[in-house]
Design a protein that fits this description.
The chain is of the alpha+beta class and 247 residues long. The protein has a single domain, classed as Ribonuclease Z/Hydroxyacylglutathione hydrolase-like (Metallo-beta-lactamase, Chain A, 4-Layer Sandwich), CATH 3.60.15.10. It is built from six helices and 17 strands. A six-stranded mixed β-sheet has the order 1-5-6-7-10-11. The chain is globular, with a radius of gyration of 17 Å.
Length: 247
Amino acid sequence: MKIIPLSEGAFTIDKTKVFVPFNKEEDDLQTRALGSLLVEVQPFCIITKKDILIIDTGLGFSKPDGILQIHQTLIDNGIDPMDVTKVLLSHLHKDHSGGISKEDKVLGHHFLSFPQATYYVNKSEFDFAMQKGAPSYTPNEFEILERADNVIFTKGNGRIDDYISYEVTGAHCPFHQTFMIEEDGEKIFFGGDVAPQLQQMKSRFIAKYDFDGKKCMELRQQWWLKAEEEHWTFLFYHDIKTPFLSL
């Protein structure tokens, strides 16, 4: 399997939930609001024998020419965005769901960013996100999922095409889910925002911003031990330096 990080860049974020662009070479974290976190926003493309997968969709930023940044990064890597076959969504916080759709400025409505793909999202997460709204969720960017034909709303734990498994972990938000992709003995694991950075895997870090920080910490420890035994590759959505790591 081939892993392609689709970074939208580095950002700082504080309790306002506003993502402020951060230049790692020029900006000083100390000048940002007290308690600001420095994170990468980094969806992934995974190429398997059967599929071109997108895992989470970023903030949905567009370039000056109007092209979605996630589309341009795919094109730069020789992939036509229209060839994407599946979009796997861990949860719908705005930094993970902004690229689900794109707004047509002329017609005033949204259309799916990957119209040829099947989208997979947990139904309870969708319902919760629609009800909860701002500042963590931006429903107008993903409400189209309820009307689209190429969306599968998952419930609980399960498998997709017998090589992708999903599990509802909660912990970061009430209905957060993770994905394991297995092919030819290789295992790629996406822990979403329960396992967003390498450094958190190696400590007993408990974040106040998580729905259940203690459970997040416990899951990270369990996954790390199992990954060492089974030689997983972790995908880290918010890691500035290490987008993925194979054990």
